[in-house]
Design a protein that fits this description.
By secondary structure, the protein is of the alpha+beta class. The chain is 28% helix and 31% strand. Strands 1-2-3-4-5 form a five-stranded antiparallel beta sheet.
C-alpha cells in the first residue's frame, strides 16, 4: 500500500504531489490525452480552460509528435509542487506511448478554497 503524501506549504522547497490531488490531476491529464477540454469543466474543482488556451495546448501536444497516455503511478515519483504564498505551482510529468516518461509537463496552480482545492491556470510545455 502506498504512503499518503500530505499537502505541504513550504515556499523554500519542492514537495511531492499530495495524495489528495492525484485523482484530479490524473483526470485532467486524461482529458488532455483525449483532447476533451470541454469535459474538463465537469471535473470537480477544476477551473475552465479558455478556448485559446485549449487550442494552444492542443497544438503544443500535437507538435510534440507523440501520443499522450493515462498517467501511470510512476508519474508521482517525479512530479512536484511548491507553495507560493497563496497557491501551489504544480508540475506533472506527462507520459507518451512512444517514450513512456516524456519531456512534456502539465503546469497549473492549485489554491485552497473552503475545505477543498481549485485547479486552474493550466498549460502544457517542455521546460
Amino acid at each position: 500500500m502506498s504512503q499518503t503524501v500530505p499537502v505541504v506549504k513550504d515556499e523554500h522547497h519542492q514537495s511531492p504531489i499530495p495524495s489528495v490531488w492525484r485523482p484530479t490531476l490524473a483526470a485532467i491529464a486524461q482529458t488532455l490525452k483525449e483532447g476533451d477540454f470541454h469535459g474538463m469543466q465537469h471535473l470537480p474543482g477544476v477551473g475552465p480552460v479558455a478556448p485559446k488556451d485549449a487550442a494552444r495546448m492542443t497544438d503544443y501536444i500535437e507538435s510534440y509528435g507523440a501520443c499522450l497516455i493515462s498517467l501511470p503511478d510512476a508519474a508521482w515519483e517525479t512530479s512536484v509542487c511548491q507553495w507560493m504564498r497563496g497557491y501551489w505551482d504544480v508540475l506533472v510529468d506527462l507520459y507518451t506511448q512512444e517514450e513512456g516518461p516524456s519531456d512534456l509537463v502539465m503546469s497549473l496552480r492549485v489554491r485552497e478554497e473552503g475545505s477543498g482545492f481549485v485547479f486552474e491556470g493550466m498549460s502544457v510545455y517542455v521546460p
